[in-house]
Amino acid sequence: QVQLVESGGGLVQTGGSLRLSCAASERTSSFYAMGWFRQAPGKEREFVARIRWSGGSTSYADSVKARFTISRDNAKNTGYLQMNSLKPEDTAVYYCAARRQYGSMSYTLPAAYDYWGQGTQVTVSS
């Protein structure tokens, strides 16, 4: 069973930065893509960003575009989410997810992903 472990969350002031990491228990080159999602209290889990392991093409939610950067390091089997210019509305539990194969389901949907981490809390104070 693939395990994904997130780290790097915490408390930061508005305008600050955090970098989240997602370490996989197996070679990430075997995955099609990795995604980051977040879930705030009382809200549904929402798409944040996605990266294809091969080629590295990226996609972002409009709410984080130009502030967040997703990346991966295949040698370390780790994905990252660099978050800059953080806002209070970015407060949520952040989850990384891995998708094993390409499929017709949109990458913005949680159901498109096969494996999930346990989540890491990000809190942005105003």
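The record above closes out task 2.4. Task 2.5 opens with a second protein, given below.
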Amino acid sequence: QVQLVESGGGLVQAGGSLRLSCVASGVTFAVYTMGWFRQAPGKEREFVAAISLNGDITNYADSVKGRFTISRDNTKNTVYLQMNSLKPEDTAVYYCARRRNAGRGMSSELTEYAYWGQGTQVTVSS
């Protein structure tokens, strides 16, 4: 049974930083692209970042490019999201997700991801 557990969210002032972690279990972690998504109140869930099997390829939403960094440690079955220069508009519940199919494919589409964590709240105050 695949399980993804996020942590690291919290309340931070604008300009601050947070590091989110997502630990996976019940899955051969190293053969799947992993992604981070977020959902703000009243809005649809949106893509934030994705990382390939061994971390050599990363993609970001334009809104976070240059401020957020996705990384992974396959020895720990963990994917991270380092968030710097946070803005109030980054406030959302952040979810990690495992891509549906194994392999090197990258995607920013929600439907390409089959397993989701429970989410961790990030609140950025102005």
